[in-house]
Amino acid sequence: MARMDVWARRARLPVSVQVTRDIFTVLLTLGRQEEREREEKAERARSGVSGASVRQTGRDRQRAADRERERNVVTLALVSVVQRGVTLLCDSQQTGVRRVPLGVLASEMGLPLSLVDIRHSLGHGSIPCSSVLHRAALSLLEYVLGTYWTSDAPETGGPSRPGSRPGSRPTSPTATPIRMGKGAPRSGVSREVEAQAPVPLDRQTALAALVAACVQGESCITPYLAAIVEPIHPCEVEALVPLLPVDSSLSLRQALCTIAPHCSPVLLGQTSPDAPSTTSIWTQEAPLEGVELGLMALSGPEVTEEGARNGW
User: Fold this and answer.
1) Among residues 304, 223, 311, which one has the least CA distance to residue 269?
2) What's the pLDDT score for residue 8?
3) Which of 47-56, 194-203, 247-256 is the least confident region?
4) Looking at residues 161-177, what average pLDDT do you find?
5) Rounded Cα gap, residues 87 and 122, in angstroms
6) pLDDT at residue 134 above 60?
7) 3-state DSSP assignment of residue 295
8) Which stretches are tagged as biased composition: Basic and acidic residues (predicted)?
9) How far is the C-alpha of 181 from the C-alpha of 279, rounded, in Å?
10) Which of 117, 124, 143, 255 has the most neighbouring CB atoms within 10 Å?
């Protein structure tokens, strides 16, 4: 649990680790609650009196009400774990535009259909007793452990849908403690890691790769932003155009407009909303105006008053 908590602070966890962490959290809480109730019962037995033979005081009634509220909280946590776990596991197998019913996905994945039925009931407001939810959580945990956390499984994957791409070895933190079964669902972290291009080493190549990635619609531009440490100057963008693919037909205006929405204020030299933008061509309030100023500074020999003040 401690290791998974550390992973959760660093990055978005894969579905298998999320579900495992949620189930263990609730089951450990439920176990501590049951242990506390057993200790209270044993203490009453050692005192030689039963709870029914002693007149309840205000403190006793308050303790009973607190225990009942704790049971309700744990029951709601079990509801969330079962409903969220089944949804996450099945949604990780959704491919294509049309969504496949959860029952079909569960059959293909080997997930017990009883869990899908319980999830359906929970979604429509019908909450079974805590013992049923407890058994459902244990059944879900057994499936997750057997599918994703088996030590003798091959190193690539878990259940896979027919026609889907086979999973690849995870590069997320899950690669350390587990060996995935064949064809595991491709989590958000593994998809993002696999989509990342090699991090450029020099600044100019990183800028060119950033613009090209934005033009091609790539969602993962973190490696390129990480390689660009200093604020971006308009003159640097002018040098990007020859480095871009010939068929991209990317103009300087398009390059500026493409980079602007994806750069953070710190990256652009704007450390706070109130700080003057002296090293950047963009501001948080009006990035497009900054783009126009940058284009004016690069379009001809004349220097605008704003450009002279900022040292362009």
Assistant:
1) 311
2) 72
3) 194-203
4) 37
5) 12
6) yes
7) helix
8) 35-46, 57-67
9) 51
10) 255
